[in-house]
Amino acid sequence: MIDIRFIRENPDLTKLKVKQKGYEENIDLVLELDNKRRSLLIEIEDLRKKRNELSHNKNYKDEQLLSNAKDLKQKIASSEDTLKEVEQFFNVEMHKIPNLALDSVPIGSSEKDNLILRQVGEKKQFNFKPKLHHELANELGLIDSVRAVKISGSRFAYLKGDLVRLQLALMNFVINTLSDETLIKSIIENNNLNISAKPFMPILPPALLKTEPYLASSRLNMEEVTYKIEQDDLWLNASAEHTLCTMYWNEIIPEKELPIRYIGYATSFRREAGTYGKDTEGIFRMHQFDKLEMEVFSSAKTGLEEHKLLVALQEHLMQKLELPYQVLQKCTFDIGKPNATGVDIEAWLPGQEKYRETHTADYMSDYQSRDLKIRLKNTDNSIELVHTNDATAFALGRIMIAILENYQLVDGHIAVPEVLIPYMIGKTRI
RNA sequence: GGAGAGGUCGCAUAGUUGGUCUAGUGCGCUGCACUCGAAAUGCAGUAUGGAUAUUUUUUCCAUCGAGGGUUCAAAUCCCUCCCUCUCCGCCA
Fold first, then answer.
1. Distance A80 CA to B68 C1' (A)
2. One domain, residues A139 and A31
3. For residue A79, what are the domain limits?
4. Structural domain count of chain A
5. Which of A77, A144, A201, A213 is the residue whose CA sits 20 to 30 A from A368?
6. C1' (B7) to CA (A378) span, angstroms
7. Are residue A71 and residue A153 in the same domain, yes or no?
8. Does residue A103 fall inside a structural domain?
9. What is the ipTM for the molecules in this complex?
10. Positions of chain A with pLDDT under 70
11. Which helix (H) or strand (E) is A68 found in, with range?
12. How far is the CA of A80 from the C1' of B65 (A)?
């Protein structure tokens, strides 16, 4: 949710920014409800004050006082009912408003308006026709989709053998890399950032969460994305982000503990409703996939720099794997509702002859933390909302697709990226 | 799953025949005093959200796990839910 005070002070700017994000603008309505709500609140607080005075009066048994108090009770009850309605309406409208994009975000009306910031790494030239990842995986017996469909349905798979070893290698590689304070420090310096070099703490979060925190995360997209467990009011996470960004729900964090940087691993579940017929081959788009996710809680001062650090780390990881990629600055239309800005990284897939999305980095400013009530306490005891960032370290399925296609050999085997060999018990090919 | 106990202002605790609880006390923390300095001691302060005011100072409302209800008045009584702990059962 955005700040109502900001809307009051900047109604026209808010209208403009909401429209630039492709959302219907309801600012006049919100302001009207806000006024109504506040005048009712003042009225009710005044009545409550009178009631408190009467109740604390030692002569509360006096009949005149009693009758006044009873009148008051009626008035308060009826005004409170009205206020409740107005507030509900107000809250619904407030939550329709997306986070406002930073001025640096290009204005656009579709994903075609995303800006390619840079393309990094050389696309490997093959002296044979490169195969698609599922062709390679099938020939090597790395994926069993047929039996997965029998047991679980479409968009599920059994991953086998060296593909499993590759995934475990990637996980260890990421966790070790992000634990390296010296490396983080040098990346911060190379990018002219002025933030802490604190390493990321590895974390295994729960995979299920309750409705209330999920809603407060501004990330719950009930119909299309998320599986619900009706029996227990629980949802299967669609990303580790959901149980990470909610971790400090309703908490106040001492400033000296910030930034909090986590590298979380979780199996993610997505319904993928509305994607029938898209990416049906192989493991590109699955109902279940494993992902390593970075999550950062910081002050408002450093939120944007933390975002830049996360993108730099994503690029570092890609460069270490020597995978060609491009970096997209997403436009106002394509960054998510809670985002102030957002960057995607797309890896080059020689089999598909396309760049495909493997990473995203989202900066939510205080939009998530306002609903989640995650605050920080400064050394002078003042309190403010934290800023939240999340970013993919590796979507393991997709990064393995990129490795299979980019590292394929003429005989159909796969070379292991050099940096992963130590994590593969010295194995150099799959 | 069965039986029982319990959730109070950072921590620990008092408070449940409704009304000086507008939440006491201890610890912790902050400031001041005493001191060469410290300890000890004394004094003062010590939550969050919101409305209102504002160059500084305010005043008020709400919050005792959450939500409802009874009442002039609820930490206290009633209902629903959530969570924690103990014992038993089951279990990776």
1. 14
2. no
3. 4-96
4. 2
5. A201
6. 29
7. no
8. no
9. 0.84
10. 58-61, 220-224
11. helix A63-96
12. 24
